[in-house]
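Researcher: I'd like a structural prediction for the single chain below. Treat it as a standalone chain; there are no partners to consider.
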Amino acid sequence: MAGDFAADYGLTPDPWQQIVLDDWLADSKGKWASLTCGLSVPRQNGKNALIEIRELFGMVGRGEKFLHTAHEVKTARKAFKRLQYFFGTQKDDPAAKFPELNALVAEVRNTNGQEAVVLKNGGSVEVVARSKNSARGFTVDVLVMDEAQEMTEDDLEALMPTTSSSPLGNPQWIFTGTPPSPSANGEIFTRVRQDALSGKPYRLSWHEWSADPDVDVDDRDVWRSVNPALVNGRLQFEVIEGERSRFSDEGFRRERLGMWAVQSSRGILPAASWADREDGTSVAVDRFALGVECGPDLSWASVSMAGQREDGDWHVELDDDQHTRGRGVAWLVPHVKGLVEANPQIRAVVADVGGPVAALLEQRHGGRWFFKDSSVEVTPLRVSELGSACSLVLDGVVSGWLHHIGQPQLTSAALSAGKRSLGDTGKWVWSRRSATSDITQIQAATYALWGAQNSSVKRPDRSRKQRKVVVYS
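Model: Treating it as a single chain, here is the predicted structure.
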């Protein structure tokens, strides 16, 4: 029905688009069968046209209110311009291409940042670029999240409440995009995909056009199988051949073959780069620092160490964690205290004092942080420093100057940890919510590396008696 309706206005869905539409609009006892809809398809295959069909049919045929969001202002603006093509640039527009659609218009708002088409039947589409405040004040039935590979946790938390009181009582969330690049905020889109692949999706439809991991990326049949627009000529083989010659192998797999890299499905650190940084002989010889982190409910904790190697590169390793202790966090403070007392080369113990470990800390002596009932001083990471520390680890792994010894617990944490944006700062931190396992080990290693490199850290214990020097190996 939606496809036939849109076809009357020159927007005839391709067969693949009709398959997706049928699932998006499937009914189950008077509600959408899919509360969450996800679509991952290579670029320029007609994703935007599919969204237009859904919005056109929904607002005209059902009186639905849509909030169409995109990562960038220019993309949001383009979406609005496409809607204007159908409804005209204003109410009673004498130049409207489709007068019968323009006759339904109650208002067209053209102001930048407030673009909208509002119909007399109550249906509407409002278009915004995503930010932490852009969704305030909206109440809608359908939330469209284009460029979902760039969505952050803050974006999602700002947007979701817009459908909590859906005027028609039948909300729907639509996520569309391409596989996230290593630098993208891909945790939300990745999580939707993981939910779909888990085998237990709740009212969720997921459509994906992607090549298998072991395909020949130069096989034209593979190109055809994952780019449905090649069938009708919207895409041309000559153009894809040009992309193949210009893109990196990874970029071509992601952008044109729709392939989700291992790191995109699990975490932000590239698995191949992490594997390349493994060095069983790596050892720090200078600038030692410890990082400490606890799990959310204080049922486990991890201590990691970082330092500089003899060749000038840097080293991180897991010192101890809950897997070897198995008794909550009672071991943590005595363990750290013992390390500090035994090794005068440890220049700092670093922790995120805004996190769970705060339960083990106290402020004294002019606001300085110490472990409770101990003389071990802790260097606190401020939020901005935390973001810089996480980026430091990513840079070290990708650029090749940060090494580890291949410990399974640290590797599991490193490859599992997603990222969460810090508002509009452009910085990010490790995300527990998108991780598939415990990540305290890589969090602690991150704090330790920051402490090893930073020049303004606090000595961990100014009053201790030195006993012996321990060299990590």
